Amino acid sequence: MKTQTIPKKHIVVIGGGFAGLNFITHLFGNPYYRVTLVDKNNYNYFTPLVYQVATGFLEPSSISYPFRKLFRGRDVAFRMAALRRIEPETNTVYLSDDGALSYDVLVLAAGSSTNFFGNESIRKNAFALKGIDDALAMRNALIKTLELASVEKDPAERARLLTIVVAGGGPTGVEVAGMLAEMKKHILGSEYPELKGAGGAIHIVEGSPHLLEPMSDKSHVAAYLALHELDVHIQLNTRVVYSEAGQVHLSDGTLIAAHTLIWAAGVVANAFEGIDGQSRGRGQRMITDAHNRVQGYQNIYAIGDGSIQFGDPAYPNGHPQLAQPAIQQGKHLAANLVRAARGRAMQPFVYFDRGDMAIIGRTKAVADLFKHKLHLGGFLGLLSWLFIHVASLVNYNNKIKTLYNWTVAYLTRDQALRMIFRPGTPEHRGRTKQAVPRENAVV
């Protein structure tokens, strides 16, 4: 007598970042669900290290990996598209490739995007650091600016070209400011001898009284001293309010002549048509119950940056929009859906805070571990930062490449990834036997 096979329920996951990927990998081999991932990119990437791609210390392949290779041999389908609209009444999602998918369970793990707080001047003139495309655009622009400065004859204009303002004193802002300051201090003079003594400065502007505001007082002080030692100009209790024509305006009336503005001052959850406005909370985040089920829906869940959950007693205002909550929510929801398929009750999500950390420049880092009970600084902080970031990369290929690049950078204070790559123009695509014009060549 044949055993009747029960059809697997279909889970559609929107977004393959920390939350989505951990959710999917913790369903590998389960007998109850098949999964389809929808993502606008065909690769996963490690968000906390995007700034190192932007500053030329890591190559994109060191922090990214293709989804199809990750899912090889697994009961996971992949669709490269963006979500356009959800139709909860018919359990259908409509995608940017004009296709549609039906689901039994929908998991929204689409993360967040840069929040410019409605400021159009900043949106048009600042670099964001949310994805690989952002990082490559910023890297190309920074190198191009150095080339422009190297032939500029006017000292004031040259100094403006070499001045960078970083808006936001959280981990991303502190880390990118430190990395840029290291480049200015140790690389600029050797590779661009014509820029020695040319001026320019790195500024970091933070609206709160401290750098790394959510971290401990020891980390506040250590970050300030480390950046100050790297000659970074630090302005606290101040915001960037306007940017245009190479001028950055601050809330205290200060005007900085700067060619480059890097925006690291906030994120907003990605929102989609079809989710009722009553189900959204602060920053467009979807309000969820203790099981990450979106308020008002029975089979739609949200995890990661796009979710806000008020049921965790230690976080009455919701969990921070960081990697660890996203990772833990992804794993927990996968376990809960397997529990439900087995007829068992779901368990409420409780976030375990493993701590916060940031690296400042080449040799210094701060770490507040285990709910800020343990502070590490200096070399120990650096080792903990390196270990956790290498361990968190998605596969061994990424780990080895990243560790190698970091070792080279640490020993030599240098990296060999400062090249501008431009895509070929349409009229030159496919001409494999003809020389590439100078404007499309590698600089």
From TrEMBL:
EC number: 1.6.5.9
InterPro entries: FAD/NAD-bd_sf (IPR036188), FAD/NAD-binding_dom (IPR023753), NDH-2 (IPR045024)
Protein name: NADH:ubiquinone reductase (non-electrogenic)
FAD/NAD(P)-binding domain segment(s): 10-330
Transmembrane segments: 12-29, 374-396
Membrane in keyword set: yes
Keyword line: FAD, Flavoprotein, Membrane, NAD, Oxidoreductase, Transmembrane, Transmembrane helix
Keyword field contains Hydrolase: no
Gene3D superfamilies listed in its UniProt record: 3.50.50.100
